[in-house]
Amino acid sequence: MNGVIGGFAALVAVIAVGWIVGRTGALGADAGGVLSRLSYFVATPALLLLTLARADPAALLSAALVATAGSAVLSALLYVALARWRWRLSPAELTVGALTSSYVNAGNLGVPISVYALGDASFVAPVLLFQVLVMAPVGLAVLAGSRTAGDAPPRWRLLTQPLRTPVVVGCGLGVLVAATGVDLPPLVREPVELTAALAVPAALLAYGMSLHGAPRPASGDGARRVWLAVALKTLAQPALAYALGRWVAGLSGVALLAVTVTSALPTAQNVFVYAVSYDRSTLLARDVILLTTVLSAPVLVGIAVLLG
Predict the structure, then answer these.
(1) DSSP secondary-structure letter at 1?
(2) Is 267 helix (H, G, I), strand (E, B) or coil?
(3) Which of 2, 192, 276, 297 could bridge across to 36 with cysteines, CB 3.0–4.6 Å?
């Protein structure tokens, strides 16, 4: 469990540095937005390219996908249905809320937890691939369409928007490299690796900077929406993953533990970067990420005790 604790500690430490930078104003008032855009438009596509270039797309067809993808989709749909019925939110607001309710931190926490708690990093592959190949493109397409809705863009622009989103371009290139089996030469790979290394720290620093001077999490008019997303992410999604894994996919033992644990991971910082990049529900994303990161620790321990 040292790796799991270390993963949480690393996240908290970098976020704390971001908060200190925001408090001192050392980088200026708009530094957080600049870092978020740097992560989204430049570093994250490079990271996803490398991640998928080394991955096996066949992992998307494993039995674990029934539980991991099914629980994510159901959790997102539950948020959309409940929030639409209760608050009549816009499609963009519903999209950010749905992502916060279902998009797990598969990279920063998923990998160490898979290695140290489950003994194999490959357990996180299905949810990681599903998120970057399906959830992110769909969510970003809705967000991008909402940003230009007032200008009545041509239909072809809306239909091709996913293909022009930086994250999706990175995913597409990564899948292409994996499918063709091409080994990137060092002259190409090393600059991409350097750029990709910016993705996570830039997102975490930007997130930490956003916490300075911000109101208490889950306060104000949007508190109920925040707690709805937190409840779905920390409780409903792992419960759904367990049910789908056990009674639909027929999983048991370590495989069942793996899908339940990976579905209980907190909301990924990517969601905050997406929200900031399109200026949609940034406070909701910030609060849900913070609360799920704190609350997921005891939930993960409880799952390990009950199923391990």
Answers:
(1) -
(2) strand
(3) 276
